[in-house]
Target: N-acetyltransferase domain-containing protein
Amino acid sequence: MRLPRHRRRQGRASLLDRSAVVSIRILAETPHLDAVAAWLHAQWWAADGWTLAATRDFLAAARGPRAPACFLAEEGGMPLGTATLDTDDLPARMDLAPWLASVLVAPAARGRGIATALVAHVEAAAAALGHARLYLHTPDAGRFYAARGWHGLGEEAWQGRPTLLMAKDLPVSRPGG
Model:
């Protein structure tokens, strides 16, 4: 998937400069595996009890097309953000699958639509596999996901704190139709 490069103008993203592109591909097929593993480990995974080595090993194996599949957005050889199609993401809800998980954009790349593109990419990957619904949980980004068609299913607990469980119904492709 290729996206237009956004140029900052007066603090707002613009689609005016289309000379460079952002691409999204499997993280393990890029030279950025160690850097992204460090990002995710510091952001969430360490708190879930993962070591940095285990985080890296999981991401190296998350090659898809079925879950787990970890995707990376990059531009000009630089990693911008990541998102994962995963089999589980919330210990209290092992009955639900698949999950949109670990959506994270580097601070310098925020405000350019990178997270939106990564979310759409994971949604499309799940739909292409025949999944009719995708789940996520978020302690603080419910409004972001709601603006992209996700709906709340209720509050759950994650690491002893409240998190919003959300879902999105996906357009499933049917053979011959």
